Structures are given as structure tokens and as C-alpha cells.
Amino acid sequence: MMSRSVPMINRIGARGSVGRRFRRMPAMPPDPIAPQYLLGAYRQGIFPMSESRDSDEISWHRPYERGVLPLDSRFHLPRRLARTVLQGRFDVTSNRSFDEVIRCCAETPGRGGTWISLRLQAQYDLLHRLGYAHSIETWSDGRLVGGLYGVKLGAAFFGESMFSRCTDASKVALVHLVASLRCSGFALLDTQFPTAHLETFGCLAVPDAAYRLMLDHAVGIEASWDEDVTLGRLRQEIIRLRDGIDAR
């Protein structure tokens, strides 16, 4: 069992946020990233990171402040981005290229390293095959240009990482994710850290105690992942997001 009585450290966050304060959790049991342990960690609000792409070591973290993207009227969809989404400039799919999405997230240039080691990638691929991890992809002229992936438990979705190869590609994937989660009755969209980029969408910095209550509520609700994340299905919900209206 992982103790909460561990020291505080400063560290670069998973998406480049410098100096976020969070707990580094003690080592887990043997083979700690086997699916049952990995999912158990997420249920406790704990997530894994590696030091580099080739590292075999895993460290476990629970931030003192958690990034949460609201799934209600507090989510902010900029008008310019809303126009891009509603014009259908990208084709958007789900789970079509999970392996490629996570690889692109890990190998995106300019990030100065990655926390997604090959060992972690293999375990997320396994979670995907088991139905617990999902991706959203954006395409332009048949070419994968952006996307994101994360882990689903109950009505909680834990966003892990995203990438973009052209302007707005990952942002469009995020908007489709939020709209789809709202349509499917999800209660929590966890972003790990409240980065400056995500704060432009209304990301909240939630203290750990409050986050744990939100998490316990969300994982106790059943919600299904819908692979139809097309604009045809989500257009009206995206308009509601643009206009600051809560989900139906």
C-alpha cells in the first residue's frame, strides 16, 4: 500500500510545467505497472512517470494541486477555435491509431525529453487492448496530425498526453474529447497538472483533498466510451460548449 507520508519535491510536470509541487510516492509491489496495479493507482489519484524514453524505472505521483478540465459551462472554448472545429477542417476518430498516438506524444520534438518510457507505453497499449485506455486522432488529407490519449475508469477520464503536427490539431482533439465526454455522462476530466496551455480552456487547480472527493464520485459512476467522436455526432454539443451552456 502506498503511503501519503512522503516528502515534497519540485519537478518538471508531464507537460512542461516547471516547479509544480507534488508527492513522489514510494515504490509499488513487484511488476507495479501490471494492469491491476496501474488501474488501482489511478483509482487512488496516483499516476506513473519515467525519467526518459529508455528508462525502466517508474515513479509514482499525486500532485498537491490537480489539473481538472470542467465538463460544464466553466469550460472555455475560444471563438476562433470553435470556428475551426465547426468548419470540420480535420477528420476526427477514436481508437483508430492508439499505438501511433502514444508514440507521437512520446517523440514530439522540442519537449526536452519525455516521461513516456517504452515500458510505460507497452502497458498503456495493454490497457487499450483491455478497453481501459483510449485515443482521439485528428487527420488532414489522410495523415495523422494530432491527437491525445488517456485512461478511463467509470465516469472519469485521465488525460495523459497530446501532440500536434499542425496548428490546432491537438486542440481540436481536446474539444471533441470534452464534447464526447459530456454527451456520455462523464463526471471528471483529469489533466494531471493545471498548465498554462490548459488554463486557456478553463482548467482548474484543485487541491488534493477536493480532487479525491471528485475522483471517488466519478469512478463510482458507470459511463461508456463512445468511439463516434465525429463532428456529425458532436456538433450541437460543441456549439453548447462555445456558448457556455451546460451539457444536457
Give the proportion of residues in helices.
25-40%
Low-confidence stretches: 1-22
The N- and C-terminal alpha carbons lie at a distance of 40 Å
Total number of β-strand segments? 11
Order of helices and strands: EEHEEEHEHHEEEHEHEHH
How many separate helices? 8
Q: Tell me about the biggest sheet?
A: 7 strands, mixed
Average of pLDDT: 87
Structural class: alpha+beta
Largest sheet: spatial strand order: 6-7-8-9-10-5-11
Percentage beta strand:
25-35%
Radius of gyration: 17 Å
- Oligomerization category of the chains in this entry: single chain
Description:
With 248 residues, the protein is an alpha+beta fold. 33% of the residues lie in helices and 25% in strands. It has helices at 35-43, 79-86, 98-107, 118-129, 169-183, 196-199, 208-219, 231-242; strands spanning 8-11, 20-25, 47-49, 59-63, 65-68, 91-94, 133-140, 143-153, 156-164, 188-192, 204-207. Strands 6-7-8-9-10-5-11 form a 7-stranded mixed β-sheet, with helices on both faces. A 4-stranded antiparallel β-sheet has the order 1-2-4-3. Strand 8 (143-153) and strand 9 form a beta hairpin. Helix 2 (79-86) packs antiparallel against helix 8 and helix 5 crosses helix 8. The radius of gyration is 17 Å and the shape is globular.
